[in-house]
Amino acid sequence: LKEKTEDLKRERRLAEDLLHQMLPKSVAKQLRKCQKVEAENYDQVTIFFSDIVGFTSIAASCTPLQVVEMLNNLYVCFDSRIESYDVYKVETIGDAYMVVSGLPERNGTKHADEIAKMSLDLVAAVCQVVIPHMPTGKLQLRAGIHTGPCVAGVVGYKMPRYCLFGDTVNTASRMESTSLPQKIHISSATYDALLTDDAYEIEPRGEIEVKGKGKMKTYWLLGNKNYSVQN
């Protein structure tokens, strides 16, 4: 009976660990208790989007299994690195990678700094990811960041997803889609949030036309004066 109890406890821990990889712990706890998870409003968060430059053409030259292996290598690399930062991985869709800081646990004014350091790390890391079927090929990342308010909540009953909603999400996505290879494109809101530390090397990009937003003044995040990316 004691052995069976220990086995049951071990299996339960494994199930909980898996659930916590898919949903925030606070949300998972409510769902386990069959409680309704209320959507929550956050005044300020920072959202990061990235995708692989030329992914469509890369995928066209590969078998489906090779695409899966390539993306798995990339995301295992990214997932291990973001653990060093106060961030939450929201989801991956194909070659798109979405991360947020400032929710589900609020962290004051740290969210822009955490995402900025993480993004510099990921842009450096992508060059080291091996493409098994293209040993001489190198992946390139295109990244975008925006800071602002949003709402977060669980949608769906089967395979529930923790999703973010609001214009901040859309603008962060636009920062990524208008970025360039191996560049981190940030909005003026993120720029203002990062100015408080005076720790970042930032270069003005000027005004650009952003779909659905009109002209926006944006910047390139180049580096951090006091922080070097992980080896």
Can you tell me about this structure?
- The chain has 231 residues and is an alpha+beta fold.
- Helix content is 38%, strand content 31%.
- The chain has seven helices and eight strands, in the order ααβααββαββαβαββ.
- Strands 1, 2, 3, 4, 5, 6, 7 and 8 form an eight-stranded mixed sheet that branches.
- β7 and β8 form a beta hairpin.
- α4 packs across α5 (111-125).
- The radius of gyration is 19 Å and the shape is globular.
- The model has no long low-confidence stretch (mean pLDDT 85).
Layout of SSEs?
Layout: H1 2-22, H2 25-32, E1 40-52, H3 55-60, H4 64-82, E2 88-93, E3 96-101, H5 111-125, E4 141-155, E5 161-165, H6 167-177, E6 183-187, H7 188-195, E7 200-210, E8 214-224
Parallel strand pairs: 4-6
Antiparallel strand pairs: 1-3, 1-4, 2-3, 4-5, 6-8, 7-8
GO cellular component, one term: plasma membrane
Enzyme class: lyase
Family: Belongs to the adenylyl cyclase class-4/guanylyl cyclase family.
